[in-house]
Amino acid sequence: MAQPVATQATSATEATPARQRQQGGFGQTVTGIIRMAVMWYFAMKFFSPKKPADPSQLMSNLFQKGEPLDMWLYLSDQQIFNDFGNDGALLWHETNIPYAVWGQGSSRSLSLQYTPSEALKHNGSLYAHVFFAHSGYPPDPNDSEYQPRYAFSRTHPVVVYYPKSKSGKRRSLLNSKQSEEDILDLEVKDDIQSDSKDEGSVEWISYWKPNITINLVDDFNRLVCRHINMISYLNIDLTTKNYYPIIYFNEFWLLREKLIPLNDTVKELPLHLEVGPISSTKWQFFLQIEQSFQIHRSYGSMVEGEADQLKRVFLEGNPYLLVVTMVVSVMHSLFDFLAFKNDIQFWNKNKSMEGLSAKSVVVSFISQLIVFLYLFDNDTSWMILASSGIGCCIEFWKIGKAMHIEIDRSGRIPMLRFRDRESYTKNKTKEYDDIAMKYLSYVLFFLAICFSIYSLMYEQHKSWYSWILSSLTSCVYMFGFIMMCPQLFINYKMKSVAHLPWRQMTYKFLNTIIDDLFAFVIKMPTLHRLSVFRDDVIFLIYLYQRWIYPVDKARVNEFGFGGEEDKSLVNGSANEADSNATDENSKKTN
């Protein structure tokens, strides 16, 4: 009678998961309904047809498509212009420009030479005042034929101001023509000028914009007053509550390198004028991009000049080449992330330093620290500084994995002491590492001293500290491949490469190949292009070593396990199974 009891227990046991599945299915159904309701709400919120607004709240364009317009462009040092009778201020005049019509007649251009005034050469202001009016009507409000309904205007500065570059403070530290007394006098004058000014003030330089592009936005949509995010660009008629055609001074492709600094030596300035239509979509796209650049600058994630570099890529680059560059950049970021991930995994699980160069890890940390100090001295954006700082922390963490770090509290000031691990000192690894680093340090120090002397004699620096940092950083960039050579020497002496993190090195090698591709695509100096290929030689030697050296099963791998241990376990279990089988056969025979 025990069997029915077991059957009931079994059925009860099977019923419990069934009930749980029913409860889980019900819960999943409710969750799915709630999720569908939320998705339906947001879909109706954003994609459903909106309720038509009150016609009294809609604004329309005061002009119709194709209406002929006359244009006047004045230059004045006053931000508000009223001197319409001054013929000297009138720079350009065009008639019968069809509004929002795409064709040859709707685009006009003019190139000329402008003679600056003395006030303009000394950080003076200059504004471009553009006036449009329906053909036959004047732009002057004092004219008897003036009609406010048919005239509109906009003002834009022709001169822009930027702070003086700090590179002007650089000087040759060994300039024989400038004595130390002159340098001290210059520093004293700078201190006096800085004290006379308010705290935080900087010297500004005025720049001339050589191109003025005036675009009339092709937009005839009826706009809602409270939903307009480009209200600063609209000129609204207070009587009819409608808007005039939007005038847009297009400076999206005007790079900073094209600006001309104003000073006493300037006699004439080139000026190219252009007027034409622009679509509403393109206009809003330019506005969004410029606002995005401004937000990144305010957050410190983009320094001055990076936006121009991005624009230059689109201006000078081949479209197909740009697509290839974007794809390759994504691949480079992916391989860089994978190399970083596998590097962390390798050092986190590594239990033995046998066959690995501990001194290369220390030198890598010092190099990363030098680069971080150099970036900090050159006022780099905080995002790049944060990335470099995190790299320094990771390199220091790797030192803790490669060596023992202890805190010595015997003195007044606690000091860090580094001690080699037993797996690094008990075999030939430390001996080979010392030999390789000894001879390579001679080469590295010689090159560093030679380059530092060259930089001191022929380049300009802000201070001695800046010279030391720039020299060390240049040596890291140019001669950093020497840090990888001790590992090659250890591999050669030990006749093995089984201890290396090959997965991480594979991703780095792929990144190196991508860097080689960029070396041919991107414009760069010849010496820098040649330096890109330095890592290829090292990686090819690694691959050659992997090919000629057989895999040593007895060597401890990167996870601290040896091949012979696994083999002995397998052989022991096999021998034990054979002995058990022999015993069973002997028992059956008996």
Task: Walk me through what this model shows.
This protein is 51% helix and 15% strand. The protein has a 4-stranded antiparallel sheet with strand order 3-2-5-6, with no helix packed on it. Strands 4-13-9-11 form a 4-stranded mixed sheet. A 3-stranded antiparallel sheet has the order 7-8-12, with no helix packed on it. The protein is built from 16 helices and 15 strands. It has 590 residues and is an alpha+beta fold. The protein is elongated. The chain has helices at 2-47, 118-121, 180-196, 280-299, 306-316, 319-349, 358-377, 382-402, 422-425, 429-458, 464-479, 485-494, 502-521, 526-532, 534-548, 563-589, and strands at residues 58-59, 68-76, 90-98, 108-114, 127-134, 151-157, 159-163, 204-208, 211-218, 223-224, 247-249, 260-261, 269-279, 403-408, 415-420. Helix 7 (358-377) runs antiparallel to helix 8. Strand 14 and strand 15 (415-420) form a beta hairpin.
